[in-house]
Write a structure and sequence with these properties.
globular, alpha/beta, two-stranded antiparallel sheet, 7-stranded mixed sheet, about 35% helix, about 210 residues
Length: about 210
Amino acid sequence: MSTLRVPLDQYADRVRRLPASCGPVRLVGIDGHAGSGKSTFATRLAEALGGAPVLRLDDIASHDALFAWTDRLREQVLTPLSRGDAARYETYDWHARRFGAARLLPPADVVLVEGVGAGRRAVRPCLARLLWMDVPTGTSWARGRARDGAAQTAFWDGWIPAERKHFERDPSRPFAEELVRECPQGYEMREGPGVTARTRRSVTHGEGPPAVR
């Protein structure tokens, strides 16, 4: 696998040149285990892109639907973006345990989607690129537990088996075009296993954006 060591602003230029994948939008998925640094990386990449909108899947998921949120994502986000319209989605309050205020997501040239499951089977046809935060499972979960503290111990005890089951049934890493690792200075990106799969798919299906399913 080749390795890319480029500043995020240079990588952002590469992202801008990707073909549109969801209507006029270049939808970029950032997946990985909980605690792997997806949110931080997405924030930094969004800044490098000049303020690209970021959809955080923590706003779409809920206690009752840790991973059963694809219908909501399709109806409230993917379908409007595929038409070139702004998406409007309800956001979940993890403390109040209910959905609250809605947010608007414009059909910008690049929109980032970050969260566990961003590269799942139902979402991949709409992605221009899938990135995987390449941090080992144990390291990621330990980081997450340390970040959230003792008050969230019960949540993590339930989350870990749910995440493990999700990725067993619907893995993302094998389809990622790039594997991202945080370094002392910036990020290192290696070619992911999904490069071959995407090349094969593009040859088979042509270059038109995939339909929202």
